Amino acid sequence: MIGNCKYQLIQLGDNVDFFNKLKIELQNKFDELKLNIDFIRFITEDNIHEYSGGEPAYVVYFGGDFIPDSDTLDIIMHQINDGNIILPISAKKLLADIPEILKKYNILEWDNNLNKIVNLILEGFELLRKSRKVFISYKRSESSNVAIQLYELLEQNNFDVFLDTHSVDKGEDFQEELWHRMTDCDVILMLNTDGFLKSEWCNKELEKAHIKRIGIVHLIWPGCDFEDFAYLAESIQLKTNDFEKPFYSSDLNNRLKEDILPKIVNMIEGTRARNLASRQDSIITDFTQAASNNSISVQLQYQRYISQELSSGKTIVYIPTVGIPQSINCHSSEKLLNKIGKKEVKSIRLIYDDLSIRDYWLDHLDWLNDYLEIKTIKKINFNRWFVTKQYDK
């Protein structure tokens, strides 16, 4: 079930004390973020069979006195091939405890700072974003009250929620703003009432979500044909006793009972975990494929950026950005320079999928490229970037 989807932390190395302390620090940080630690599956070599390639994963390799055997190296290679972020931690001078296969990655020298490592892991899982965005799609004439109820519930659970009646300013191009906001969200919560799929706009929102690979959670009203959604894993079939009053499809004042609400929140969080990893992976795949098509070598690093080493010895950093690039992305990217520890960074570029972003915002980003140190590259221009060797100009 998607509601049980996990963030996977793969622990390689034999420092049991380190990994026990790391788990405690993660628990503390999850408590601060008001997240459930059960969303993380802790995986070692002993239970590596529990690893799922369809769920977000982060690999921590701790060196020290551990000597990796062929099984460990096979696991590492599998994780590299799956495109997962790998954080190699060296406990010795000269990185002698890091296997050759990981020496091309940025290596973190162990300095007893667990908080730094926890933050890297949370950033890798996109859990440190200030906003965790949900878009509620519904038919006003059938589920307005439940939509407002869920809006309030999700805001209480630290989500940034888009609801058309609460989130679109007067005078905005309503439908264009909906598509724009949708592309920037992590999950779409669809309230599938009797007339939902009969609505032209609800169907278009469903279509747009699939094109953008945005995760969807479907709440299916009693009496609606579940078979219409059987191909969707992220769905909850509501029963009449899930509502506060005896269910009538035309009763707009009805609300959901309290005991069904945690299940909805958990499913949204689980879907969000998978979705962010999938969308970021899609950007990374498209960008690295464009590089490969032009015989350019790039490398995915543990801080969630792609590096390209130039013949001059300088490095270009590419940061895959889910949703709409904002000024906060640029600010975070500048801070990343300190984490990278490389003085010879030629430039930083945010790479993003431009589909369904409003023209005025795309024009704004293009304009900013003439003025800001941190610049952007649209998905539509990935190939041209390498063909015309823009990186070397």
UniProtKB/TrEMBL annotation:
Q: What protein name does the entry list?
A: Toll/interleukin-1 receptor domain-containing protein
Give a yes or no for keyword Glycoprotein in this entry. no
Residue span, TIR domain: 130-260
Signal peptide limits: none
Q: Which organism is it from?
A: Algoriphagus pacificus
**InterPro entries xref list:** TIR_dom, Toll_tir_struct_dom_sf
What Gene3D superfamilies does the record tag this protein with? Answer: Toll/interleukin-1 receptor homology (TIR) domain
Q: Mind listing the UniProt keywords for this protein, alphabetically?
A: Receptor
Domain of life, per UniProt, equals Bacteria
